[in-house]
Design goal:
- By secondary structure, this protein is mostly helical.
- The protein has two domains: 19-134, Winged helix-like DNA-binding domain superfamily/Winged helix DNA-binding domain (Arc Repressor Mutant, subunit A), CATH 1.10.10.10; 137-217, Arc Repressor Mutant, subunit A (Orthogonal Bundle).
- 57% of the residues lie in helices and 6% in strands.
- The protein has helices at residues 5-8, 28-38, 41-57, 66-73, 78-90, 105-110, 120-129, 146-157, 163-173, 178-185, 189-203, 208-216; strands at residues 61-64, 94-98, 113-117.
- It has a three-stranded antiparallel beta sheet with strand order 1-3-2.
- The longest helix has 17 residues, at 41-57.
- It starts with a helix and ends with a helix.
Length: 217
């Protein structure tokens, strides 16, 4: 489901990384976190770049050609960019304002389409209105309770975690086994163990029970 690693091998951006669900307990950083984790890595790279361009330009919508998006994100595959944009549209993170005339690849590359890019808080609001749960594959579609909100807050605050490590940590809070986490994230059980070791180190714990206690208490 996720693009190939060769297309997305970039370090985690602490400003755009982070998760959470809309609620009175959540701040802007947590809203950004949830939106970031609900995107695939390519979708998040596109979203972060487009949001930054919108904020810098001070306009509600801007034209983004494939060429411009390639420059902003360093993604060199036109098909990867197209899939990423479609993913963002399907998750109500962006909205297409108009379509470019013509259907040729060159036309898409040069002219592009105008997109409205919504900030994280509005993305979550748009999703809530449509009954869309803002969780990634790494987090169950369950109603957040106060304890889980606390776990999300602690994961958000630990900015040394990668996106995948954050998903694994929250899966542990849900009580999933390594095999179940691997199945949900579509990775091997060995990969889950690899990420879990890093999570333990970054939270200063030695075992899963300590991690869950640290996140929930």
């Amino acid at each position: 489901m996720f693009p190939q690693k060769s297309q997305i091998s970039t370090p985690a951006d602490s400003k755009t990384y982070p998760l959470g669900e809309k609620g009175e307990h959540f701040n802007h950083a947590q809203a950004m976190a949830l939106v970031a984790l609900s995107h695939s890595p390519v979708e998040q790279r596109l979203y972060a770049a487009m949001l930054a361009a919108i904020n810098e330009g001070g306009k509600p919508a801007e034209a983004f050609s494939a060429r411009r998006l390639m420059m902003l994100t360093s993604i060199r595959s036109l098909s990867t960019i197209r899939r990423g944009l479609e993913g963002l549209l399907s998750k109500w993170s962006i909205e297409r304002e108009e379509k470019v005339a013509g259907n040729s690849d060159r036309g898409v590359r040069e002219a592009g389409a105008a997109y409205r890019v919504y900030p994280p808080d509005e993305v979550i609001g748009r999703r809530n209105e449509r009954g869309f749960i803002s969780f990634t594959k790494g987090i169950a579609s369950q109603e957040l309770n106060y304890s889980f909100e606390r776990a999300i807050s602690k994961v958000v605050e630990n900015r040394t975690l990668s996106r995948r490590e954050a998903q694994v940590a929250l899966c542990c809070v849900e009580g999933l086994t390594n095999a179940e986490i691997g199945s949900r994230l579509q990775v091997t059980e060995q990969t889950v163990k690899f990420h879990l070791r890093h999570v333990f180190i970054k939270f200063g714990v030695r075992r899963r029970a300590e991690l869950i206690s640290r996140l929930l208490m």
